[in-house]
Structures are given as structure tokens and as C-alpha cells.
């Protein structure tokens, strides 16, 4: 299977004929329009595909648990209240009254009003790396790991997935981590060990970084991924020299 970039958009279902990929993209909300309706119809007619949807929902559920709750602005509540307000009745030719209620929005359309849901959709970029690595035959590869990197205040900045078998770390930005004349750099810190550099991160796009066997070996239980702001081009010492802006503990998927 050929790797593709994580920024897949548009109404067409990117999963193609791969039922695992199609189910994962449906769960992550990467399909819309005709593609989403077609997947829903397929789930009703195909118990095996419905089971794949359920399996991917359970696999991605830890990501939602790691997203800090966000209180919607007051303006959002005002718009919701206005959209469900009871309209005034209008008279018909025969003297009756007709009340025109606004069209009911689908659940997934309403979900886009929430900032937390938008953050979860952004995490899909990182999760696609896992979806594209599904083996075509049964196998027992080393467990992939995931970390949600948050600021000290709890804001999600990055989501990273580590694949020991392919020796890659895929990092997707969720929040803004740019700084003038600084380079975000990713580090892995094993429990009780010292930080080891993984690579520099671009400011606003997902990236798959090749890793060494030493980095994979550091991905032990309770190992931490961290991002620091370093001079342009990375740390000159091989250790973090700038402020650490986000950290997250690796957990097996």
C-alpha cells in the first residue's frame, strides 16, 4: 500500500475499495455528502462493514478522552437559541395557520459548531498514518503508540503516532505553536532517561519523521514526547535549550 499525505479533503470517500480505510474515515468524519450517505447505507446492508465502524470507534475513543473540554463562546449559544426559537404562525388562504420550523440539521452538521469536535477532526490527520499501515494479511507487528501533546494549561498542540515496525513518528499540529526565529523540535524522553532528539517540526502541517532504533527503544511504558522551541535549525547541543511548550505520554493503541 502506498502512503499518502494526511490532508485528505473533499466529498469523495478516500477509502476506495479498502473497507478498513473507508470505515476509519467514516468514523473520523473525513467523508461528507454522497460519500457519507453511501457509507451509512453500506453499514445498514453489510454487517461486516458495520462491525468495522464499531471497531474503529472504539480504537479512536482514547483520542476524544484526551481533548480538554472547551466552553463555547456566548455567541454560539445565542445562535443556537435563535435557530430553535418558535417562529410566528402564518395564515393560509382558508384561514388556517402554518408554522414553518427551520430545517432540522443533521447531528454531524451541528457538531461542527463545537470547538472540541473541530479539534478531534484535526487529529484525524495523525490517525490516517495508522489507517494506511493496516496490513493486508494477519500479522502481529509491534504495537503502535500515540501521544497527545498539550501545553501546561491543557491546550492540545500536537498529536503524534509512533510506528515501531516502520520506525516513523507522524506528528500533526492541532494548535498554533509558531514563534519568530524559533524552530519547534520534537524529543522523546524514556522514563528516568534523558531527552533524545527526534526531529524538527514544520509550523502548520503534518509530518512523518524517520526514527532510529534508539528512538524506538526509548518508547518504553510512560515514555514522554515533548516539543521545545529551539534556535532556527534545531538545538545546538543535542538537548532542549529553549522552553518546552507541549508534552504527552505515549500509550499503546
Question: Keywords, please?
Answer:
32% helix, single chain, 7 helices, 253 residues, 11 strands, alpha+beta, five-stranded antiparallel β-sheet, 2 domains, Immunoglobulin-like, four-stranded antiparallel β-sheet
Order of H and E elements: HHHHEEHHEEEEEEHEEE
Shape: globular
- CA-atom Rg in angstroms: 22 Å
Low-confidence residue ranges: 1-15, 101-118
> What gap, in angstroms, lies between the N and C termini?
21 Å
Please give the count of helices: 7
Portion of residues within helices: 25-40%
Content-based structural category: alpha+beta
Main beta sheet strand tally, sense and closure: 5 strands, antiparallel
Beta-sheet strand percentage? Answer: 15-25%
Tally of extended strands?
Answer: 11
Q: How are the strands of the largest sheet arranged?
A: 8-5-4-3-11
Domain count, please report it.
2
How confident is the prediction overall: mean pLDDT?
75
Describe the overall structure.
With 253 residues, this protein is α+β, with helices and mostly antiparallel strands. It has 2 domains: 1-135, no CATH class; 141-253, Superoxide dismutase, copper/zinc binding domain (Immunoglobulin-like), CATH 2.60.40.200. 32% of the residues lie in helices and 23% in strands. The chain contains 7 helices and 11 strands. The strands form 3 sheets. The chain has a 5-stranded antiparallel beta sheet with strand order 8-5-4-3-11, with helices on one face. A hairpin with a 5-residue loop joins strand 1 (90-91) and strand 2. Helix 2 packs across helix 3.
Amino acid at each position: 500500500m502506498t502512503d499518502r499525505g494526511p490532508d485528505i479533503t473533499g466529498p469523495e470517500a478516500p477509502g476506495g475499495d479498502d473497507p478498513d480505510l473507508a470505515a476509519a474515515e467514516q468514523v473520523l468524519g473525513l467523508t461528507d455528502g454522497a460519500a457519507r450517505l453511501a457509507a451509512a447505507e453500506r453499514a445498514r446492508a453489510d454487517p461486516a462493514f458495520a462491525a468495522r465502524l464499531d471497531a474503529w470507534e472504539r480504537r479512536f475513543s482514547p483520542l476524544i478522552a484526551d481533548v480538554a473540554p472547551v466552553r463555547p463562546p456566548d455567541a454560539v449559544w445565542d445562535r443556537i437559541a435563535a435557530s430553535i426559537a418558535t417562529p410566528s404562525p402564518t395564515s393560509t388562504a382558508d384561514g388556517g395557520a402554518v408554522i414553518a420550523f427551520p430545517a432540522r440539521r443533521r447531528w454531524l452538521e451541528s457538531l461542527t459548531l463545537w470547538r472540541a469536535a473541530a479539534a478531534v477532526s484535526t487529529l484525524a490527520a495523525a490517525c490516517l498514518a495508522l489507517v494506511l499501515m493496516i496490513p493486508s494479511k494477519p500479522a502481529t507487528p509491534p504495537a503502535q503508540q500515540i501521544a497527545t501533546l498539550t501545553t501546561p494549561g491543557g491546550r492540545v498542540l500536537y498529536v503524534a503516532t509512533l510506528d515501531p515496525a516502520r520506525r516513523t513518528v507522524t506528528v500533526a499540529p492541532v494548535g498554533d505553536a509558531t514563534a519568530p526565529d524559533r524552530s519547534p523540535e520534537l524529543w522523546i524522553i524514556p522514563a528516568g532517561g534523558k531527552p533524545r532528539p527526534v526531529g524538527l517540526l514544520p509550523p502548520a502541517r503534518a509530518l512523518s519523521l524517520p526514527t532510529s532504533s534508539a528512538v524506538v527503544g526509548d518508547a518504553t511504558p510512560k515514555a514522554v514526547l515533548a516539543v521545545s522551541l529551539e534556535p532556527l535549525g534545531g538545538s545546538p547541543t543535542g538537548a532542549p535549550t529553549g522552553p518546552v511548550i507541549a508534552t504527552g505520554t505515549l500509550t499503546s493503541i
